[in-house]
Amino acid sequence: MKKMLSLLLASAMSLSLLAGCGGAPQTPPAQSNPPANGSNTSQGNTSTPEPATPAGPIKVAALSSGYETTYPGMWQEVCDAFTAETGVEVQLTLEKNLEDVIGPSMQGGDYPDVVLLATGREKGLTEQFIKDKLMTDITDVLSMTIPGENATVSSKLIPGFVGTNATNPYGDGKTYLAPMFYSPCGLFYNAGLFAEKGWTVPTTWDEMWELGDKAAAEDIALFTYPTTGYFDAFFYALMYSVGGADFFNQATSYAEGVWDTAEGQQCFDIVAKLAEYTAKVTPAQANESDFSQNQQLILDNKALFMPNGTWIVGEMADAPREDGFQWGMTALPAAQAGGAGASYAFLEQIWIPSGAANVDAAKQFVAYMYSDAAADIFLKGGAVQPINGIVEKLDGDNVMFYSIYDAGASAVVGIFSAYESVAGLGTVREVFFDPVNGLVSGNVTKDQWIADIKAASDEMRENLV
């Protein structure tokens, strides 16, 4: 496990070179930015003064996900523990459709003090707050002493999880989103079925296509996906496995001509071909209401692989399954024989709206998220914090999942750079990933998909925040 963690940290640190993707050109590597080095905030031990008695109560809005399904009451228990430690009361809003619940009140000027909602969601609420610069600078939280402990936030964070454009979206060295739960993402499958059939998990895309033909002969689709939103982690890992850090850096910052390169074309070719091997029922069920039916295809042996994160185990814990079913997870295959596969380290983010009424207390709450007490509660739901020593506390399926990097997969961290809101320009998901539904159904051609990405990338590049 120590070897796995070392590989993850080394890969994450190397990818911190991507931190400047979304701001001014030639932004220094994350290691030289204040939030990501050992002399200031990210890894320093110098704490900044915190309010002796933060005001309250505070309003916390969190997404209810598979973690909450695994351990109901997880978030309430953390909030209660924070109150017991600080005396600050918490009013918790916990919803699966969080954007729909808090959106109307925010339009009226009533904001939560803390929001747990990652980028990449269909509604794009977090991205909208980034684009409109409506988030509070929380760089100082990294140097705060965690309530109830002597350690600072930065001293407990795994290096590489702060300083990328997933936490520092403007390339100015300031942190606006704190990393919360992280999950190795990959292709999930029924290991029991593979054992029964004597099939080998593919390590290259050529092997993947060969397996797809074998499965098709038995009326099993090679691939499905819950919703197109799951292609973000998939595509990030694909870009990295095809072109390495340099191509990933250029692609996520919409570099001119990047999609005309051999690496860009290979990414498109793989996704388009994979669409041909995807279960045809997938697009109709690829929405926030029916996505679990696509996930069920894996449990019913109607499809072999789906992109997902470690939360899938809890999310489908009570779902029926074929006899002998056993969760398996693999990295995305290597682009060519002898190459390395890749697994995206998905991050959920926690942030403070600039319109929050209790910013000081909200920062205390964010700092508390990295306490041992909070981390232990989150682990009951399978939610893993990016803090030192957390991997040693894992058990069950999580040991296998988080060992994916120990098996040689490259760890991928970072997201597409943020850009200003422009009339007619969609979100990254709308431009890059939603059209996959059309590729599968035949309503969108590969050439049209690529042309739209190129046109949108030009606008994105011109309007970086």
What is the terminal separation in angstroms?
A: 39 Å
Poorly predicted runs: 1-48
What class do helices, strands and sheet pairing give?
alpha/beta
Instruction: Provide the succession of SSEs.
Output: HEHHEHEHHEEHHEHHHHEHEEHHHEHHH
State the CATH superfamily name of the largest domain: Periplasmic binding protein-like II
**What radius of gyration results from the CA coordinates?**
21 Å
**What's the CATH topology name of the largest domain?**
D-Maltodextrin-Binding Protein, domain 2
Number of strands: 10
So what's the overall shape? globular
CATH architecture of the largest domain: 3-Layer(aba) Sandwich
CATH C-level of the largest domain? Alpha Beta
- Provide mean pLDDT, rounded: 88
Strand content: 5-15%
**Residues in helices, as a percent range:** 25-40%
Largest sheet: 6 strands, mixed
Number of helices: 19
Number of domains: 2
